[in-house]
């Protein structure tokens, strides 16, 4: 596959992942679909792993990557591929940020009320054997917000998966961008071949017309 087509495909895949990461992060602010006060929201959510990490820091590189792979674009050249490679590194940093914050959010668990009106991190500083992730019977200890443990586990897991996919795609684009920077994009070569073919056809037509005129 041409480096340009590969870049366009990567960019097209990153855009929906960015959107999903942003939506997932926003949903974390509303446990069980309810509105809660700022001090009752899990702290790791305020690090915006999906909005900043998996969202904006990946959306910008995705735009450059797609432009580098878009036929006829001013970025569809060696310089564009080099820029896409550099921007991909920024995107990898954003994806890793999303992964790390989401993993920590999963490990620490949500902020919840156990029934006495005080919001605490019930599952914080527990060993792997005691982790709430492997013992769903502990989830009922969090009474408010309702289903907050399931809500956080599902959404943080989604963000972790999205960040991983984004990192893989962007690392692949770093390699693809390096190849495109060194060897060029196939699109330019295809355009050159097409131009030569058109020129040859035109010359053949002119020659045929010349012979016809001579015969007359």
Report the radius of gyration as a whole number of Å.
Answer: 26 Å
| Low-confidence region ranges | 189-216
Biggest sheet, spatial arrangement of strands = 1-2
Q: What do the pLDDT scores average to?
A: 85
Q: How much helical structure, as a percent, in the residues?
A: 55-70%
Span of the ends, CA to CA: 50 Å
The count of helical stretches stands at: 5
Largest sheet descriptor: 2 strands, antiparallel
* Quaternary structure type: single chain
Protein structure class: mainly alpha
> What is the string of helix and strand elements?
HHHEEHH
What is the fold's blueprint, element by element?
Blueprint: H1 3-28, H2 49-68, H3 78-108, E1 111-113, E2 119-121, H4 148-183, H5 186-215
Antiparallel strand pairs: 1-2
Helix pairs in contact: 1-2, 1-4, 2-3, 2-4, 3-4
Task: Please give a handful of descriptors for the protein shown.
single chain, 216 residues, mainly alpha, two-stranded antiparallel sheet, 2 strands, disordered C terminus
Explained architecture:
The protein is an all-alpha fold and 216 residues long. It contains 5 helices and 2 strands, in the order H-H-H-E-E-H-H. It has helices at 3-28, 49-68, 78-108, 148-183, 186-215, and strands at residues 111-113, 119-121. Helix 1 packs antiparallel against helix 2 (49-68) and helix 2 runs antiparallel to helix 3. The chain is elongated. The model is unreliable at 189-216 (pLDDT under 50).
Short description:
The chain has helices spanning 3-28, 49-68, 78-108, 148-183, 186-215, and strands spanning 111-113, 119-121. It is mostly helical and 216 residues long. The protein has a two-stranded antiparallel ribbon.
């Amino acid at each position: 596959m041409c480096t340009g087509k590969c870049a366009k495909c990567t960019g097209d895949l990153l855009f929906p992942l960015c959107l999903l990461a942003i939506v997932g992060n926003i949903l974390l602010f509303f446990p069980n679909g309810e509105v809660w006060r700022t001090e009752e929201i899990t702290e790791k959510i305020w690090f915006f792993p999906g909005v900043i990490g998996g969202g904006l820091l990946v959306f910008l590189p995705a735009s450059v990557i797609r432009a580098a792979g878009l036929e006829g674009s001013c970025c569809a050249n060696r310089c564009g591929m080099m820029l896409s490679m550099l921007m991909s590194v920024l995107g990898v940093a954003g994806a890793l940020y999303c992964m790390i914050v989401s993993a920590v959010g999963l490990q620490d668990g949500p902020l919840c009320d156990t029934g006495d009106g005080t919001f605490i991190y019930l599952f914080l500083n527990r060993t792997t054997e005691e982790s709430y992730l492997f013992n769903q019977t502990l989830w009922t200890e969090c009474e408010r917000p309702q289903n907050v443990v399931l809500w956080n586990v599902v959404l943080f897991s989604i963000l972790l998966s999205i960040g991983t996919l984004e990192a893989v795609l962007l690392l692949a684009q770093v390699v693809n961008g390096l190849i495109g920077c060194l060897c060029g994009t196939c699109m330019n070569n295809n355009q050159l071949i097409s131009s030569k073919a058109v020129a040859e056809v035109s010359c053949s037509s002119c020659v045929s017309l010349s012979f016809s005129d001579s015969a007359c």
